[in-house]
Amino acid sequence: MTATARSIVIDDSDPSIVYSGTWVVNQGKDFDSVGTNGRVFGASVHAASAAASLAYTFEGTAGQIMGTSMINNQSNTLNPTWTCSIDGTQIQTEPITLDRNNNWPFCRWSGLSEGSHTVTLNISSNGIPFYFDWLSFVPSSARIRPMGTSETILIPSSDPAITFDSSWTNLPDPLIGKATSQSGGSVTVSFSGTSIVWYAVAPSGTAIAPSKGRIRVDDRDTYPFGIPGLTSSASPSLFNQQYFQVANLSQGAHTLTVFYDGDSSMMPLTLSSVVVTDPPIQQSAKKPPIGIIVGGVVGGVVLIAFIVLAVWYLMRKPEKPKKPRRVEPENIIQPFNIPPTTGPQSTTPSLRTVRSNNTRQMTQTDSRGPLSTVSTSLSTGSGSTPLPGNASFTSSVPSSQALLSPSSRDRKTPVSATRPRHRPQQPSTTETNVTSSSTSPSTANSGGERRRVDSQRRRHQIQSTISEMPPAYTPG
């Protein structure tokens, strides 16, 4: 395979080629012995025996379409025929040969502007197959390799990645490549890929005896390979001869060194080009751009700072005062309905007495509602003071209030209208036994207990203290 600049090779099986019309895929091995230009590229060729076309879009400035030439000239009529065009403009085709050869150029182009272009091959045939094998193009300088695709790269012997020692010379025209006949002559090829194929020329007019050489990859052990010769000195030159292939290399950069172990009486070691296969780039092996790394670091710092500020704000935020829980009032005494009187009403608290069985209940009320309740009960028991008729009277009064004297019966006891600043301690209760005589009733002093009453209507508390003389008790 020959070329003057590094180019990308597209095999006929590449899915990016758009075929139109009827095409048949042929096995490449069926054409191995055709002509003097070596084997077909890859494992297949596409054949069209009627009107058909193919198109391929690329980013490059030059290229060529290659195939197997089997032109039939019957009555000076060539069959098949073809035309090539770039972006819809027809270009000149290569000279037609009646010799059968693989790797024959059908059309070539150069001098295109940087950017995307489309090459189209139109075929006209009357039953004679046209065989398309591969195409290549010189990529634009700004071309970006598509992600997830492998590439086959054709590197000519003139590429700067190939370094020859002083024993190498250029092949005579029209041959393209370099050769050495000096034992120990070497050449080094730097490439990036998983495989490399060596293509050479077996020139006529030189020594025709087979010779040999050695290869070494990445400073490893060397391996020998054979260099075929020509059958006779009159034999034509052989092109695109594949001397060896190194495959299954690890992905990345490698160095191939080739040594010549023959001499001037043997077929020289030549090089026209190498073809390197570079598989798709693995995502895990690709380093992220610096911008992404910096952005990730800055974003992480900002996120951490935000979390710290949020925690600090929540810790220093004062708690909201708890809403006081409503306490249901206990022992609320509903007001009694006092029957209306015809006389003038007094604002002095009055005392009502309610009898139920042996219990007499006295409730002191005023115009605002009940103030306190004092209960008396009649009972018999060993712990009570005997009364006439086995009756006893037990009264529970606050110990903090003294019994009122009989002279204070008619004295009005002021009612506290305001709530004290400090809640007084709950007084303890004592029991006082009063014994009455048969001639005069005994009088017991009782004091009202200061209690807090929660009014549902006003939702505030009123506490008052009432002291009143109980009515005289007369045994029946």
TrEMBL record:
Chain intervals for the UniProt region annotation (Disordered): 320-476
Segments passing through the bilayer: 290-315
Residue spans of biased composition, Polar residues class: 351-367, 391-407
Keyword terms of this UniProt record: Membrane, Transmembrane, Transmembrane helix
Compositionally biased region (Low complexity): 369-389, 428-443
Keyword Zinc found: no
Keyword presence, NAD: no
Name the record gives this protein: Transmembrane protein
Species in which this protein is naturally found: Panaeolus cyanescens
